[in-house]
Amino acid sequence: MSFYFLPIIVAAIGFEIAYHISKTKKRGRPLVCPVGADCDSVVHSDYSKFLGYPVEGLGMLYYGFITAVYLVLTIAPSLGFQEVFYFVGVVSLGAFIFSLYLIFVQAFIIRAWCTWCLASAALSTILAYLAYLSIL
Question: Which domains does the chain show, CATH number per domain?
Answer without folding.
Answer: 2-135 (1.20.1440.130)
